[in-house]
Amino acid sequence: MFRSALLRSCKPRLVRCLSSRVSNPNLAAMAGDDYLYHIGLNPASDDLAATFGDVRFVCLGGSVPRMGEFAARAAHELGVAPSAAQPIGKTDRYSLFKVGPALISSHGMGQPSMSILLHEIAKLLHYAGARDPVWMRMGTSGGVGVAPGTVVVSTEGVNGMLESGYELPILGRRTSRPSLFGAATVGAIVDAAAARPETAAMVAGGRVVRGKTMSADCFYEGQGRLDGALCEYGEADKMAFLRRAHDKGVRNIEMEALQFGAFTHRLGIRAAACCVTLLDRLEGDQVRASPEQLAEWDAALGDVVLSYIKHELGLPPPKC
User: Fold this and answer.
1) What tens digit of pLDDT does each residue of 27-51 get?
2) Residue among 268, 248, 239, 86 at smallest CA distance from 164
3) Is 168 exposed, middle or buried, given 0-12, 13-18 or 19+ CB atoms closer than 10 A?
4) How many domains, the chain?
5) At 297, which CATH number?
6) Tens digits of residue pLDDT in 81-113
7) Is residue 175 located within the same domain as residue 211?
8) DSSP character string of 86-128
9) Are 32 and 108 contained in the same domain?
10) Among residues 109, 132, 155, which one ends one of the domains?
11) Is the CB of residue 70 less than 8 Å from the CB of residue 138?
């Protein structure tokens, strides 16, 4: 049973009485009866506090298989029972895992899909009373002037106009929110990677960098590719735009960081987007890496995120 009276006493703009962050005064009247439809969990029937109250890290990535594999790896490296790497709730849209202090989930492809999950995860942690966890998006991306296999830790999300604002029509009005990631969180992730032996060489070799991330709602035209079914520009136009993006500090392009940064920044959630690059867009449009290379790069991204988690938990480095 949830403390509805306590919820009703919260400030209407930023409700934090149960520690995790939401900004919706209407939730007070719904406490205990707010079915989280897309992940299949219900405060009225599920003991969310018992399962999710100790969450300190939220790790989100696009595909179900990748996040399932990451959940299994996290369980092994954090010393959690392998059974933790089993999905919780509904799995037709997302797959959600609880691995020790980490909540791990797929979020699908694109900002609309991620937006649904972000709202429901934020409410889940709010009802569970989780204590201000760090949220991290783990994804793949196209690099802009960085080598394939580089992990870009985003400082800011920008749209296709290379502007920070994430725009969303709400009740017939355009709402724009800045997409920013806190320097302290970004720095802590990079510093942890530099300090841990399993990732120090990546940082020293320039394979972990900070930079802006451009997000698009289209894989082809919105990202300036020449290989879609529809294209009304040429190579020179594409290259001029990518060089301009690079000059403005953009180091990778994907489809979620802008909305992720705007959502977490608006709610004051500590967050970071960590994406590995699969190609350098200044060199071409298609991913031509082998399956073995792709697996190696994905593992490197997991190394960076797990290094930060283990550093925060005070876990010793792996034995040689």
Assistant:
1) 988 867 899 999 999 998 999 999 9
2) 248
3) middle
4) 2
5) 3.40.50.1580
6) 998 889 999 999 999 999 999 999 999 999 999
7) yes
8) S-BS--SS--EEEETTEEEEE--SSHHHHHHHHHHHHHHHHHH
9) yes
10) 132
11) yes
